[in-house]
Specification:
Layout (H helix, E strand, L loop, with lengths): L4 H26 L1 H6 L4 H24 L3 H24 L6 H19 L2 H13 L2
């Protein structure tokens, strides 16, 4: 079965998010001393950036190749990423004034992911992939 456009688009979003976290990792390493000077924790920034880089590449690859496990990985990864983002923002950082925009964007993005992952075309594609690999 041919991969639906929505799955391709979702895979690209996941990979671009992974690349963004790869940049986070690279900048933490490159600006380590400066981050320490301003009280940031470059080790935390590096670990979180590297973790999301690897997770995003694995999930994006799975979505692109139509691996049956990637549907659940994308769903779980999106939920955990959203939780981590808000935990980081509310607990580990100083408060930001733009939280209503960030909350609206998070809800919009979660809805977009859910719309794609739970669409009948997407479900049929991953169910077909699961039965074809047995």
């Amino acid at each position: 079965m041919k991969r639906p456009f929505s799955v391709t688009f979702l895979a690209l979003i996941v990979v671009f998010t992974a690349v963004g976290n790869g940049l986070r990792l690279g900048e933490a390493v490159f600006f380590w001393k400066i981050l320490e000077e301003f009280g940031a924790n470059p080790l935390y920034i590096s670990i979180s950036g590297g973790t999301w880089l690897v997770a995003g590449i694995v999930i994006g690859y799975g979505l692109w190749r139509g691996r049956a496990w990637s549907w659940a990985a994308a769903f779980g990864g999106a939920a955990i990423y959203g939780f981590w983002y808000w935990f980081d923002r509310l607990v580990l950082q100083e408060p930001h004034a733009n939280w209503p925009f960030a909350l609206a964007f998070t809800v919009l993005l979660a809805g977009f992911f859910a719309f794609i992952l739970f669409s009948p075309k997407t479900r049929a594609y991953f169910n077909k992939q699961e039965t074809s690999h047995e």
